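Quick check before the chapter quiz. The format below is the same one you will see on the exam, so make sure you can read both the input and the output lines.
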Amino acid sequence: MYWASRFEEEDVLVHLPYCKIDFKHAHDTNQQNYIYKPLSVEVSNKIKSISRNNPMAMYTILLSGVQCLLYKYTNETQIMMGMRVMEEKNSDLTLSNKVLLLKNNIDHTMSFKSIFNQMKVIFSEAIQHQQISFRKMVERLNIQYDLNHVPMIHTLVSLGKAQTVPDDNNVRAATMFHFDLENENVQLKLTYDAERYDQDYMMQAAEHLDQLFAVLLHQPDLALSQVEMLSTAQRNELLFDFNETKVAYPQHKLMHQLFEEQAERTPDHPAVRFESSVLTYRDLNQQSNQLARTLQAKGLQTGQFVGIMAERSLKMIVGLLGILKAGGAYVPIDPEYPADRIQFILEDSNAAWLLHHSHIQKPEQYMGMSILLEDTAHSSNSHLNLEHSASASDLAYMIYTSGTTGNPKGVMIEHASIVNSLQWKSDFYHFSGNDRVLMLNPFVFDSFITHFFGPMISGSTVYLLNGQQCKDAVAINSMIRKEKITHIQSPPSFLMTLLEQAQAEDWASMKNVVAAGEKIVPSLIHRLNHINPRIEVCNEYGPTENSVVSTVLTINSTEQYISIGKPIANNRIYILSEQRELQPAGVQGELCVTGAGLARGYLNRPDLTTEKFVDDPFVPGAKMYKTGDFARWLPDGNIEYIGRMDHQEKIRGYRIELGEVEGALLNITGIQEAIAIAIEDEAGTKQLCAYFVGVEAMTITEAA
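Here is the expected output.
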């Protein structure tokens, strides 16, 4: 049977991406609106000329054009949409067969001519087999029906009076492209679901269709990937208006140099507090200078890696600054990491020096030089600032990222890149000597860097909690109340845990909350607003590969849509198709970042560096980073995060590679199959779940 051979169970109907970010899937309503858009005179004349005014030929051209538009907007290579059946004389068509489905395969290498020729065959065959009930035609497909049992066809295309069907609710469509020939011009009436689309978006789609025809009909052999459908104004908006981020920060500064300048301005102001101890800016600067001289005496050269394996403490902070001041690049290592992960980081980085506490044993296989943070010999060195041996293009640090299983990858960040992020952080949040910042992030997270050093270059005081306190909501809320904390940063899920156990007086001093690393749910904003309506909430987004922060959104209302905001200072964002074309506003693509924050690349991974750090297609000589995140521009220049392109998830701030989790499970004796997934609860919080099949029954403890 023809229709059974045309369709497969996994086939889906394609629609223009929904542009309304807050629409509800309410299939029991049908709020339709429409726009009229005449195709340009040149396009109309070309269509009439090619078709020789033959309605069937004209319709085939229009069908092919709409398919090209759908491909450009969705990147779906299998385009399936609906068409009205062709009215026949002496025919008594029933309700069930007034719509046919057309399926065509498209890819970016195809030309309009080849798509048109395919469509001619598909269209002709469909007409020959149109005497069939709708349900019989689609029996192999998963077609949705509304509450009135009306089939929902996402995209419908019709032409002229021969395909005009009275509005008798025989079909629902998210978009209906109805063409007619009026006054020698091809007119488009585009009817759309007003719950999912707005007028501006539909007008944009109609203009893009006209632009596609203008190019494709004059250059029918041109590959789709070479067809530009954006107008000059739209292109300029995406490239320049939405990326108007240039800020003239001081150039050629080093990360620790910014701190030293602040230490000169406020030497006696408390810099860091931990438990009952405190370091002033002078204390911290002098102690880190002394440690830096020890490192240099041990042979540390500019740009070399130094491992630091430390618990939360003042010595940890001295260690980080000491490495930077000595000209090295620090590599943070959590002492609680599995032994094989610690060993991999030390070997991969080839760190010849390892700073650690006296009570933390260095790995047995480590052959480098061990330096104790508590060694009193450091204090015999000069406490004066060292001459800066590093330059802005030298490495400041390297963070190993990508999950908690398998082999992580080292992301190398230069001083110039992170200094831009730090100066933005200081300016954006207006840190000052009156601010008291609570640090919850582990120092192995990149978010630690901006949330610690941003305040440090601004004269604020940072409060550290020990490892146990950082997990204790009661202790944290007590600290916030006691020390009158003004700023805090945390993954949204942990913030919610804090707020569930907090009283209004606990957070009375709070000025700003940064939620990052996970999706923010509206309930969190409502809770923060309830506990202290004066709190400013910010959503930060950014990969480690772009120096922590790439975009930011300030949330001013509980009713505000929570996007990831706009690019920060001296950063640019592109939303690109697979062929690295600019995607129109409202159309998803891969989020790519470029500008001042880019990393140097991945250590010892030239293949991955080449794959992810590619040439900027719009700025000669520049690079951009492909994040692997799906996103789209909103009309106001904010960016909506959609999700990952791969199997990576971010849970409580950790990057988790689901494939690596599955691989680790499969390495356990007795496990035959395994799958890992991220499950989102009603509040929007993600949890990592794994399922496995064993040779025989086993407990979770045995599997672990």
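If your answer matched, good. The two ends are 53 Å apart (CA to CA).
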